[in-house]
Amino acid sequence: MKFLTYILPCLIASISWGQKSMDTASYNPLREVIVTGVSKPITVQNALSTVKIINRKMIDALGANTLNDVLRNQLNMQVQNDGLLGSSLSLQGFSSDKVKILLDGIAVNGRENGSIDLSQIDLQNVARIEVIQGPMSVVYGTDAVGGIINIITNKNPCTQFSITNQIESIGKYNLHIHYNQTRKRYQWSATAGRNFFGGWNYIDTGVVQRQQLFKPKEQYTLSAFLETKIKESNLQFSSDFLKETLYNRGPLAAWNAFRVYAIDEKYLTTRFNNRIKWTGTWRQHFDWNWQLGMAYYQRIRNRYTLDLTDLSEQLTSGAGDQDTSAFIDYTSRAMLSNNQHAIAYTIGMDINTQYGNSLKLANKTSNVQDYALFIQANKKFFQEKLKLQTGWRASYNTQYAIPLIPEISLLYNPCKTIQIRSSYSKGFRAPSLKERYLSFIDQNHFIVGNENLEAENSNHAQLSVSHVAFQKNTTLLHVLFTQYYNHVFNAINLALSNPGWSNTQYSYFNLKELRNTISSFEIDMRYKNCSAKLGASMEYSFKSLSSLNSFTAFEQTLSLGYQLEKAAVQFNCFIKNTGARPYLQLGAVDGTLSYNGVQPAFTLIDLTADHAFSLSKKRKANSLKTIVGIKNILNVQSLPVPGVVALGPHNGTNSLNFLGRSCFVTLTYQL
Question: pTM score, two decimals?
Fold first, then answer.
């Protein structure tokens, strides 16, 4: 706890220097604006989907630097960590391959084992995160079966210059610099940063260990944004770049009078995401939106011998020791909407093309194209109290026949404070290039694709009731109940392909079905300087034709906030309890999947305090913001999963692992 000797003086000093109180304006979650799945921004109150918004204030309060730091505290979401593949997400009981992650509406590519590494998505230039639980296949197509997570970057920063430095006692050191400028008809901004993590192992032997559970890594990030006005339209260009180096240090291979060396691995990851967005109005009645995106992902794996006497490196020559994978995705989406007539409608076009080049692909190179047209139409009834929307998506895929995908949604407002939403939609997910053509064989892995995979199809239904029970000035009581039902056919999973053999081999197979229902209940309360948000959910998974037994799992979340108005300090507490749930186990005899392993219940608790104060009476923008906190107070580090020999082909342990307790301080200077 020596780190507290640095944190506490910063907190005490910031409290004593406070000059003004924090904003206590009236707040209503239904008035927040969303942009996911719509042709123009609308409020949550008018949206037909149930949307969860994680704003910048919440991101800062969590002390979050990357996406996994935020999502691990959210209801119906589970974040898991892998030593080499990073952090992955499960949403509504569905694995990450069924969740689509967007950056300003354009899909992020580069999945390893079906997952996007959440720790590679930096949040320093992010304004908010919009989460839609449930399929959005009509608008976003494949991979959107389980839900959508749309990361909205900051387009209108309130300060011209800022520098943020974050230090965490567990070995993390992050630095980011931001600058923006506005000139008449255009605005531009740039953010550069470095994230460093020295690695961590929950087994403390008192000596430096080469092998670590959480691998050391270093990230360099760069984001750029440019916006200009062209007559009655806005043209935006956004670009995000990440370069990550991850080190997997092995044990000493030899230690004698002749030679001292170890076999190490180095993973070099490059992400380059570019977006162009053009929006405007045509003939006063039509709103149009056009997006063009290019997402580039490259991962280089080098295995080498490290001479510990002179630190020289020499690449090894074993089968599969060296590998380079590169994937590039092109996206073009256009939407035209008319809300001036009795029947409002949106017509859209969506084109997606992916090219892959990897030694792990059976044919070394491959590509897939998807072309789609979609339409959504809605009409209001009963003096605009009832809004009905229906939509269809017709697609052509170069490798799979895609059925017509329908959806129907209903929004009913019996009074100003109550909203009732219900929806039904179909989902579709075509197998990825890796799931079909992967050939990943080396000393530690034996994973091959399956060209005979069938596409996933699904049915989804949802019902939610939102009620603002009381609101006056800063006092609010908001209640939300949501019921989800999901039924997936031909779900794609990784499983043993040679059960009982000494050389374990994995491949991708179709399960006959997965079916579950989730009941979710949330209460948002605010009174004067106090706030509390309570969430609870129960997931029931039905017994399926895939020989999967039924089970019930629970989750609870609690967020508490208290504002010390005179000192302008906000205290926050975040608690999440994840109940015990069966773990999908690979059968050692017949290779079938079953819920035999049991993941124990665990609780994560974080405490933070933040304070912002002005450094100059003349220039209010000249300020310093301080955030201090403790993460994982209960020091949850490793949870054994009884009944499971290994959690997967990339992880040779039968435990779930977490970073231990740590303290952090974040200092942001704004000008």
Answer: 0.89
